[in-house]
Design goal:
It contains eight helices and eleven strands. The protein is of the alpha/beta class and 302 residues long. It has a six-stranded parallel β-sheet with strand order 3-2-1-4-5-6, sandwiched between helices. It has a three-stranded antiparallel β-sheet with strand order 9-11-10.
């Protein structure tokens, strides 16, 4: 089908990344390619986030505000991540709100998907490297090679390139100090009761107190990485993957004994977790009947 001409400013673009087939170091380069095609309205990374090999994606997910899509492996013989990406792409096709699909993978299993999208008149740009399947290159509208990026076939913990500018800017934390609360990190400051002096005037004698919550000294993405690692290594998770904030605090102290929520401008771990869940779609939180805050890695609906 002949593609209708649409100026780049009106083209709606979806960036779909197979996070189990691509290295996290490709995040910045693929974003740049996708943004050159038009208005980037979807940017998703698909992976089983409980696998150690996908943890390198946690930082670029936070830094570039990608949407992580999680799916558990249901069978050793089946790749649920591939299937989920295909299902989402077909939903977008039938909803008719995407003009250009940018697919980041090297897997030939996506060849039928690319052919179907192009048959429906969509532009499909495959982004990969020299290891990308020839069948996938052949059926795409255009193949973009990211030479030297190590895009396909591995995940690693190499450092992530500097952040790109976005409308929302890089993730930041709040700068307004909060009253100290629980979680065992910053106990509330307190004053001694008023005392009478010789002139019967009231005076206040301050006790030795904890330092006030400082303005953030570290970027929020570092908190996202630490929280994600703590959740993944926590053994006290329920069947649905929920972990209490108390358990997360214990795991964080094992990762870094010096960890403090006020590094990120929050008086308590609970407030930091809640703030991260608002800024990054990687986490889900809930409050149990005993007011115990719990968190887990976000899962797909249904």
């Amino acid at each position: 089908m002949r593609l209708p001409f649409l100026p780049p400013s009106t083209r709606r673009v979806a960036l779909l990344i197979d996070g189990e087939n691509c290295a996290a170091t490709c995040a910045l380069a693929t974003l740049k390619v996708a943004e050159q095609q038009g208005r980037l309205v979807v940017k998703r990374v698909y992976a089983n986030w409980s696998r150690p090999g996908t943890q390198a994606w946690i930082e670029p997910v936070a830094r570039y505000q990608l949407q992580p899509v999680h799916h558990e492996r249901v069978s050793a013989a089946k790749n649920a991540t591939d299937i989920l990406l295909v299902v989402d792409a077909m939903d977008m096709l039938y909803n008719q709100f995407i003009d250009t699909f940018c697919l980041i993978t090297g897997d030939s299993d996506y060849t039928p998907l690319v052919k179907r999208l192009r048959k429906a008149g969509k532009e499909v740009i495959v982004i990969g490297d020299e290891r990308t399947a020839e069948s996938l290159k052949a059926v795409s509208s255009r193949f973009v090679s990211l030479k030297g990026e190590g895009v396909v076939g591995k995940t690693n913990n190499a450092s992530i390139p500097p952040a790109i500018p976005t409308d929302q800017g890089e993730l930041t934390t709040q700068t307004t100090p909060e009253p100290a609360t629980a979680d065992g990190y910053l106990p509330p400051t307190a004053l001694q009761p008023a005392a009478h002096n010789s002139n019967s005037q009231h005076t206040r004698t301050p006790m030795v107190t904890s330092p006030p919550v400082q303005a953030p000294t570290r970027p929020l993405r570092e908190a996202v990485v630490l929280l994600s690692k703590a959740i993944l290594q926590a053994t006290k998770r329920d069947a649905e993957g929920w972990v209490s904030v108390a358990v997360i605090g214990h795991e964080l102290r094992k990762i870094d004994p010096t960890f403090r929520p006020n590094w990120f401008g929050h008086a308590s771990l609970s407030k930091l977790v809640a703030h991260c869940s608002q800024k990054v779609s990687l986490f889900e939180i809930r409050t149990q009947h005993n007011n115990q805050l719990e968190v887990r890695l976000r899962r797909t609906q249904g």
